[in-house]
Design brief:
Rossmann fold; nucleotide-binding; binds adenosine-5'-triphosphate; Rossmann-like_a/b/a_fold; Rbsml_bL25/Gln-tRNA_synth_N; ligase; elongated; aminoacyl-trna synthetase; Ribosomal Protein L25, Chain P; binds magnesium ion
């Protein structure tokens, strides 16, 4: 793999290795919460974590950050693994933060024994009231000075399930006057009698994210814990927990670590924050994406209009294009929004090189070549790729009656139109030049067909083959063509920043309800034979992918991945 752009995280790793920090090792993790499908923003974190580890000979774990039982589901656990693999990465080992519940519990008792944590009986509302504000210090909880014995007893009873949800919490004893609100005696554990997707009903108490995350990193031997900027203010708590616990010297976690399949080599990880990746014309929060699915505004998490990895996969975005996109976007501490069209540019670049060319007609108009026999049946050899002979050739059936695109013919052409008009000439791709002799009308006056004559002297290999006409159009042979369902997708949102609520509207108000259009198309047989998920260029139309669920060679279904040019460009 090409080295990651010289971003600041890479520079930190280089500097750490130069002084032998972490023994020169690099170990990262990608820690999704299994409460939804991964989206393009997650791909930035995946590319960064796996990319940095690979570049420095280290490795990356996949860890399900599953400490919040209410919103998590095994469906997401499975989908996340499939999506990371699809993006082209493989983890060193797979873990669940919930695998560490025992270790986390043992560590919490250590904090209690050292007078660094206490059981608090304040309600959630009271905690909020005691917490203070940005400008005012908080007040100590009346339960803060409980004895170690009482705290241990209460915490053990919390674990035993003796108390109701929300009745008590375990809180770190840090500093209620801290300028950083995250250090004002933050909760470490809460009571939550909910079945967990991994641990079932084993635990009535669940660790809070900040506490669970730093300990999980340490027990997995993570060296560089990369996270997004909103955790910058949480870093002092991350460090505080690890300082208090001194995990490498905790004999009591060696056995639980062994049982969790960990070597027992606790590291001292460092948290480094970077800016989230954002794209215009889309939303990238699992909560909002979940709402689109729940409200039926899209056809599921893998709807090709969705910015989920499952969605863009079905849309036909190659994983290499997503990796290239985030690599070029770079990694910084400045929040920014990247134009979706930049990603589409990466998609075109990859597909231009990888997609075989085929012919398809999306809006068919009959063209009859009157100087050919009704029985004429020919197979014309076409290159599969104009720039790469390795793609080989195929034979495209050709006959007297063809389908062409309706908008490649005009009776009264708009200005500058260079394709077929009555009495005019156009080149049929790979065939030769035809002249339109007359137009056949339906009873209602609409066009039923255009009759043409083929100038056989202009066919490939004939003396007139080089004769110039302004336009070239594609076609498929009517009697050989296969009927296909083609789904044409546009952007899901009508505004560049659907998250902007300053005008009183929410993202739901900006949904483009005609972002999906389905047409019946005619495609050449070689296109129908495409494998599912195979990307093709339909000449002059765009890049399309054989739908990963619905496509068969008998009933082809294609999704438009992207048009050939940026139709949104100003
Ligand atoms: P969401 O708000 O969409 O639920 P999240 O951050 O809560 O996102 P997690 O499952 O916790 O989702 O994310 C897993 C990892 O991916 C985290 O380390 C998180 O920081 C990172 N991540 C999430 N969104 C982005 C993004 N837009 N850009 C870069 N990294 C991201
Ligand atoms: Mg999160
Ligand atoms: Mg979230």
């Amino acid at each position: 793999a090409a080295p990651a752009a010289g971003n600041f995280i890479r520079q930190i790793v280089v500097a750490d290795r130069a002084v032998g920090k972490h023994g020169g090792r690099v170990k990262t993790r990608f820690p999704p919460e299994p409460n939804g499908y991964l989206h393009l923003g997650h791909a930035k974190s995946i590319c960064l974590n796996f990319g940095i580890a690979a570049e420095f000979g280290g490795n990356c774990n996949l860890r399900f950050d599953d400490t919040n039982p209410a919103k998590e589901d095994i469906e997401y656990v499975d989908a996340i693994q499939a999506d990371v693999r699809w993006l082209g990465f493989d983890w060193d080992s797979l873990h669940h933060a919930s695998d560490y519940f025992e270790i986390l519990y043992v560590c919490a008792e250590k904090l209690i024994r050292h007078g660094k944590a206490f059981v608090c009986d304040l309600s959630a509302d009271e905690v909020r009231e005691y917490r203070g504000t940005l400008t005012e210090p908080g007040r100590n909880s009346p339960w803060r000075e409980r004895s170690v014995e009482e705290n241990l007893d209460l915490f053990r009873r919390m674990r035993a399930g003796e108390f109701a949800d929300g009745a008590r919490t375990l809180r770190a004893k840090i500093d209620m006057a801290s300028g950083n609100i995250n250090l004002r005696d933050p909760a470490l554990y809460r009571i939550r009698k909910v079945t967990h997707q991994n641990t079932g009903d084993a635990w009535p108490i669940y660790p809070m994210y900040d506490y669970a995350h730093c300990v999980s990193d340490a027990v997995e031997g993570i060296t560089h814990s990369l996270c997004t900027l909103e955790f910058e203010d949480h870093r002092p708590l991350y460090d505080w927990c690890l300082d208090q616990l001194d995990l490498p010297n905790m004999a009591e976690i060696v056995e639980p670590m062994r049982r969790a399949g960990l070597g027992g080599a606790a590291s001292r990880p460092q948290q480094i924050e970077f800016a989230r990746g954002n794209l215009d014309y889309t939303v990238m929060s699992k909560r909002k994406l979940m709402a689109l699915v729940a409200e039926g505004l899209v056809d599921g998490w893998d709807d090709p209009r969705m910015p989920t990895l499952a969605g863009v996969r079905r849309r036909g975005f190659p994983p290499a294009a997503i990796r290239a996109f985030w690599d070029r976007a770079g990694v910084t501490k400045q929040n920014s929004v990247i134009e979706f069209s930049v990603l589409e540019g990466c998609v075109r670049e990859v597909l231009d090189a990888s997609a075989p060319r085929r012919m398809a007609v999306l809006d068919p108009l009959k063209l009859v070549i009157t100087n050919l026999d009704a029985a004429h049946d020919e197979a014309i050899e076409f290159a599969n790729h104009p720039k790469n002979a390795d793609f080989g050739t195929r034979r495209v059936p050709f006959s007297r009656e063809l389908w062409i695109e309706r908008d490649d013919f005009f009776e009264v052409p708009p200005k500058g139109f260079h394709r077929l008009v009555p009495g005019g000439e156009v080149r049929l791709r790979g065939v030769g030049i035809v002249r339109c002799t007359d137009v056949v009308k339906n009873a209602d006056g609409s066009i039923a067909a255009v009759n043409c004559t083929l100038d056989t002297d202009t066919r490939t290999g004939m003396p007139g083959a080089d004769r110039k006409v302004k336009g070239t159009i594609h076609w498929v042979s009517a009697k050989h063509a296969v009927a296909a369902e083609v789904r044409l997708y546009e952007r899901l949102f009508t505004t560049a920043d659907p998250d902007d609520t300053s005008d009183g509207k929410t993202y739901a108000d900006h949904i483009n309800r005609s972002a999906k259009r389905v047409v019946q198309a005619w495609i050449e047989p070689a296109a129908a034979a495409a494998q599912r998920e195979h990307g093709l260029q339909f000449e002059r139309l765009g890049y399309f992918v054989a739908d990963l669920r619905d496509h068969t060679d008998a009933k082809p279904v294609f999704n438009r991945t992207v048009t050939l040019r940026d139709s949104y460009a100003k």
